[in-house]
Amino acid sequence: MPHPVMFDDDDPLLRRVREIALALPDATEAIAHGRPTFRCGKMFGIFGGSIKGGERRDRSVLFLPDESERPALLEDSRFYLPAYVGPYGWLGLLLAESTDWVEVGELLDSSYQIVAPKKSIAKLDAR
């Protein structure tokens, strides 16, 4: 049974996340478990998530943080430990119209560099 769609394709926050994620070399988008995911070989971003117990956080972005930054990020109330992928190192950032999109770009860039193949990272470095 397919997962229900858990996003609005016209959401302006999703549009901003797409612009940032798909600007990275060789990045692609695929729907998985009812949500847009961003990949370069492996997933480096997910639009929307939930917390354990099922509370949905549809207007958020999930990413793999740099391990050295993880503790500080978790002290910030905008960040949360997402269900399912949180135990594998992922964090979620709640999004709003006032979101710092430079910060989102930095978080997605860092997540991308954790999973992307060397040839894609070389393309990023060549920019």
List its salient traits.
single chain, 127 residues, alpha+beta, Aspartate Aminotransferase, domain 1, 6-stranded antiparallel beta sheet, 31% helix
Describe the fold and architecture.
The chain is of the alpha+beta class and 127 residues long. The protein has a single domain (12-125), classed as Aspartate Aminotransferase, domain 1 (Alpha-Beta Complex), CATH 3.90.1150.30. It has 4 helices and 6 strands, in the order H-E-E-E-E-H-E-E-H-H. Strands 1-2-3-4-6-5 form a 6-stranded antiparallel β-sheet. Strand 1 (28-32) and strand 2 (35-40) form a beta hairpin. Helix 1 (12-22) crosses helix 3. The longest helix has 15 residues, at 101-115. It is globular and about 40 Å long. The termini are far apart. The model has no long low-confidence stretch (mean pLDDT 96).
